[in-house]
Amino acid sequence: MRAHLAARPDESAEWEIETRLSAALDKLPDAPVPSNFTARVLQAVKRAEEQAGRQPTGLWRLWHWPAKWSVRAALASVILVAGLLSYQHVQDSRREERAQSLMEITSAAAVPGPEILQDFDAIHAMSQAPTADLELLKALE
Predict the structure, then answer these.
(1) Any idea what DSSP says for residue 66?
(2) Is the overall model pTM greater than 0.90, yes or no?
(3) How far apart are CA 40 and CA 47, in angstroms?
(4) Contact in structure between 12 and 5 (CB atoms under 8 Å)
(5) Helix/strand/coil for 72
(6) Are 12 and 6 in contact (CB under 8 A)?
(7) How far apart (Å, rounded) are the C-alpha atoms in residues 78 and 8?
(8) Helix (H, G, I), strand (E, B), or coil: what is residue 5?
(9) Nearest to 48 by CA among 40, 36, 37, 60
(10) What is the DSSP letter of 53?
(11) Alpha-carbon separation of residue 127 from 39, 96, 100, 112 (angstroms)
(12) Using one digit for the tens of pLDDT, what is the confidence trace for 52-100?
C-alpha cells in the first residue's frame, strides 16, 4: 500500500485526510438510541406499505375505485366494445383501399393497346362525312 501511495502523491494526500477523519470519528461517542427505535422503524415501514397498497397509480386507480362489480363489468364491456369497433373500422378501411386499388388496376387493363392506332388514318377517314361533289352536281344540272 505504501509503495502505491508513494507512486501517486495526490492519492497519498487524500489517503492521509481519510485516515485522520476516521480517527476523529472513532473518538466521538456513540449516539444514544431510544429503546423503542426498532419498533418505531418497523412501524414506519408498515405505514408506508399500507399507504402504497391503498393508493394504486395510473389507470389502475380507476379499477380499484370502490364500486360494485356491475360497474366494473360495464366499464370492461365498454372498453371491449370500443376496441372491437375500432378494429372493425380499420378492417373496413383496408378492404375499401384494396377494392379501390383493384378497380384502378382493372380500369388500366381495359385501355386498348397501341396496336389499335395502326389503322387510325383509315378509321378517321371513314368517320368523316362525305362532302358534296360539285363537278357531279354541275354535270347533272
Answers:
(1) S
(2) no
(3) 11
(4) yes
(5) helix
(6) yes
(7) 71
(8) helix
(9) 40
(10) H
(11) 110, 42, 36, 19
(12) 766 656 666 665 656 677 877 888 999 999 999 999 999 999 999 999 9
For the record, the C-alpha cell of 71 comes out as: 360497474
CA dist 24 and 105 (Å) reads 89
> What's the distance, CA 12 to chain centroid?
54
Radius of gyration of the CA atoms of the chain, in A: 48
Instruction: Confirm if 82 and 90 have CB atoms less than 8 A apart.
Output: no
DSSP string, 77-138: HHHHHHHHHHHHHHHHHHHHHHHHHHHHHHHHHTS--GGGGGGHHHHHHHHSPPPP-HHHHH
Residue 71 near residue 79 (C-beta atoms within 8 A)? no
Alpha-carbon distances of 21 from 11, 49, 89, 101, rounded to whole Å: 15, 38, 72, 81
pLDDT at position 6 is 78
